[in-house]
Amino acid sequence: MRVLITGAGGQVGRELALAFADHEVVATDRARLDVSDRDAVLQAIVTVAPDAIVHAAAWTAVDACEADPDRAFRVNALGTRFVAEAAHRAGAHLCYLSTDYVFDGTKADPYVEWDAPNPASVYGRSKLGGEQELGAGATIVRTSWVCGFHGHNMVKTILRVAAERDELSFVDDQRGHPSFATDVAGMVRRLVADRRPGLFHVTNQGAVSWYEFARSVLEAAGLDPNRVRPIRTADLDPPRPAPRPANSVLDNAALRLSGLPLLPDYREPLAALVAALASG
Fold it and tell me: Per the residue annotation, which of 96, 123, 211, 266 is the catalytic one?
């Protein structure tokens, strides 16, 4: 296949380029392709004529989105419209990466793919807007709490804070599935190669709070997990501008019911990531 990847400079995008390395990959970052520019998107995709497009480009700064909704919708929703239009013209299969933030987090149980979205933040609404721009044949992959070797993520933040302070505070009233970029990219490759349409929740297994996850990161690094103190979201100082879903746990029901293998427990890739970060 010839595969065009948008957002290839991000933590998932860089792993996607590696996951498709045995195919012909055209990896575009923001400098090479601004997805909010319709003419640029149409020209690039029609010229490349890919067999498949993995649309990972997004503005993911959750709190910044809250302050600039026009930019959030221009990049995340309208940009996806342009990519979908170009994919249709090129006859390419399209896979869009979305997020747990399309849910408000009030459900008591894990969210399945057929639950009705109800985003509480601008970021979530703009990513849901992107989902709504796709045709019936597209693949939508929702993931959550993404971590990886590249870019900014919570594993790196936790390790940095642990090196600076004796005590760490993380909320224990937000729960989700940590997802590791290498594993997510591998599943995206499989879904794209199979040209499977529809919506899939793709996360690593193991539901935890941020407090529990921080303890796991310290344990993986050989540090004392008891240095982490639980707090409530309401006690964050300063408070976050964008609301976070209290329940971000995504049941990978579509994968499971299709007989596809689920990603491993998050502790496995976490150990590998912490070791890789330690070795530089």
Answer: 123
